[in-house]
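Entry 14. Ran structure prediction on the chain below.
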Amino acid sequence: MLPDEYLELALKTSVIDWTDKEQRKIAPLGLLGELGSLATVLKRGIRDSSSYEGYDEHLKEELGDLLWYLVIISCSRGEKLQSWPIPKETRDLFHHLLAVEESVTELMVNDTRSSKASSSTAANIHHAFQELANMVNAVGLTMASVAVASSKKIRSHWLEDAERPAARYDQNFPEYERLPRKFEVNFLELKHQDQGLPNELIISIDGMHLGDRLTDNNHEIDGYRYHDIFHLSAACCLGWSPVFRRMLKKKRKSDARIDEVEDGARAAILEEAIVGQIFAYSRTKNYLENIKRVDADLIKLIQSLVQGYEVESAEPWEWQDYILKAMGIFREVRNGFTGKISFDAEQRSIEITKS
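Output, structure tokens:
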């Protein structure tokens, strides 16, 4: 992969306003943060040795993140690579890491003095690229291979295709064992404050009640009685929800193995655990109001949990799309709601209609 090809892809995922003096600091600070992450990987590699599973993969990922930041920084300063730097020397990894850090720090110092690029800026950028190339070479990789790996991450995390229909994991099963692609769910809030009792929620689809009457099951009224929205949204945005499948009695019993593994109790518990993780994460962030990106660590955790299940094929952006849409609906209804919510897995769309 050539620098121009990688730059084009990197710029599609950069939302930095380079005309804003404060925002210009985002990329250099981000690069310094990635250097810290790389240092953590190297530390674990030394400390844990052969017991550190995934060391090579994590190392390549962190180098790719460094490359992303360095490429957009260089472009913003009017410096574009024509070709990847040729490694000049291979020294201790820490030497190259510290050399990159020194160049970026100097770049930030220059930025505080002037917003215009200078010969010193160009020198710092080229030096950082050279040291990154040396570092990449020291671990037996090439800049091109790191760029290819990074481009795959960029596409899977940030280049969304939200208009693409959700997955059809059950398309080869009978109609009566498939999750619905379009459905409306009615919500009825029963208020009992005057009796000193918690409010209850009744959910139904086509006149059939789904599950039991729900309360928050918490000393604090936090709207968790509406958490089934996450299962309904998972069916809509991911084409997957063992819990919703159970509610509808749509388990794939025609295939005993699928019924046991994909639609069984363990899969349902796994989905509940994922919803719990999302809920806990969101509570500390005002339920993701005005947030457009979910922390990559949360998505990585979810992906690690679903390994071995059919939904492991869902890309990071799909999990993000699901989380943000589900939480958006949850914010609207958490304080009490009677009405219907329409779900469309073909469009990955969720619409709310209040009574």
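The first strand starts at residue 182 and ends at 190. Will compare against last week's run tomorrow.
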